[in-house]
Design a protein that fits this description.
3 helices, mainly alpha, about 90 residues
Amino acid sequence: MTLLLAGFWPGLAGATALGLAVGALVGWPDRLAASLGLCVVAGLVVAAAIAGFVPGLPGLWLDGAALILPVYCAACGLGALGRRVIVRA
């Protein structure tokens, strides 16, 4: 796992920055179906990466997606929360 973090830190940093920007620009969704669906997809990707269904280079891509997608989702939530706090103030 440490090797994956060392290799994917630029992607993680980019996902964090992009998620914060997108969350701040878009804000909270009106319907929760899209955000819940994205959380379900992220959970399925993480579960598939942990189970090790996909070997080789595609497995590495899956592991990278399992690391980056939840970080992006969390950063979108933080950006939307920041927008909500700033708009109310």
